[in-house]
Structures are given as C-alpha cells and as structure tokens.
Amino acid sequence: xxxxxxxxxxxxxxxxxxxxxxxxxxxxxxxxxxxxxxxxxxxxxxxxxxxxxxxxxxxxxxxxxxxxxxxxxxxxxxxxxxxxxxxxxxxxxxxxxxxxxxxxxxxxxxxxxxxxxxxxxxxxxxxxxxxxxxxxxxxxxxxxxxxxxxxxxxxxxxxxxxxxxxxxxxxxxxxxxxxxxxxxxxxxxxxxxxxxxxxxxxxxxxxxxxxxxxx
Length: 215
What we know:
Elements lengths: L6 H11 L15 H12 L6 H8 L3 H13 L3 E4 L2 E4 L1 H11 L2 E7 L9 E7 L10 H9 L4 E8 L2 E3 L7 H4 L4 H9 L6 E7 L2 H13 L3
C-alpha cells in the first residue's frame, strides 16, 4: 500500500480539498474541506446516492451539497442519474489514489479511548513524522463539532502518543485496540486518529479535520 509521501497520492488528496477553497469573487463556501471529503468518500462507498442522503450523511444543507456536487461534476469526478450520484471513471481513479493514503472507519464501537457517544477512526499512511503532540489534530476536530480526538503514531508495532504514552495498548487496556488493528491495519510510521462526538457525522468530520492538518 502506498505512503502518504507518494506524490500521486498526496497530490490527489490536496487537489480534491482545494475545491473547498474560496473562489474570488463570490461568497465564502458554506462547507469545509472535511465536508467535501466526507461527501466524496460517501459517494465512493455507494453505488448511487441522492442529494438528501448526502446532506444527512455529511452534515451540510442541500444548498451546500448542490455546490459541492457542482464542483465535483465540473472536475469530472462525479456523475448523476435518476438513481443518484456516482463516481465517474476519473473519480474512481482519484478515489483509488486517495485510498492508498487514507482509510476511514466510519462506524467504530464506542470505547473509553475517546470522548463522545459516537466514534470514528481513520489511518493516514506514512504521516507519523508530522505529528507533534496531537493538540493541533484535537483542536481541529473540536473546531468542527467533535468532542475530542486522539492521535496515535505507530512505532515498533505499538500505538504511541508523542510526548505521552510509549505503549498505549499496555497503559490503556481496551477492546478497541484489536478493532483498530484489524480494520485499519496500521503499519510503522502510520497515524491512527480516533475521534468522538455526539453524532456519527460529527465524529467522522472531526476525524477527517484532524487528518487534514497532517497533509
């Protein structure tokens, strides 16, 4: 599996996120890069998905969904038929490139490892060297509505917190660790982010917001 530092993979993610930037002239977008990324990932995981479903799953209004879909369609990443939206061959190639670096586990069993009734986790390949204390990732998650987020770096096969625990599995026993390892399959140098929130959508958005700080 590719590393985050792979030029194609990194370029793919950053290129997609630029679609959320403000275009002059005109009003500022009513959505964040995290919303746009979650919309794209939701379309990727579905055969066809309608606008109302996308709005509910990504936490934005239908107006913002129309704007996001317009940007994705203008780039040739998404098409639409009566049954709903879908990834075009170009969108599928983009998704395949992104998947080499980022994998989101949307539904994660509630654990004591993070705050919040609903939790989401993701792995970001090869980004371990970019993590300092994890505070920036936590703040970005909280800023978008999450309750909290914890950033782990995989070193010598262990989950560590830079500046904190050198073996989180040993210091904080939990049934969540096998799930993280089996579902995300992190390797040395990877980053695992676990985010908790009141709602499932906020947990997913928080995890993505945290990951974006490491791109």
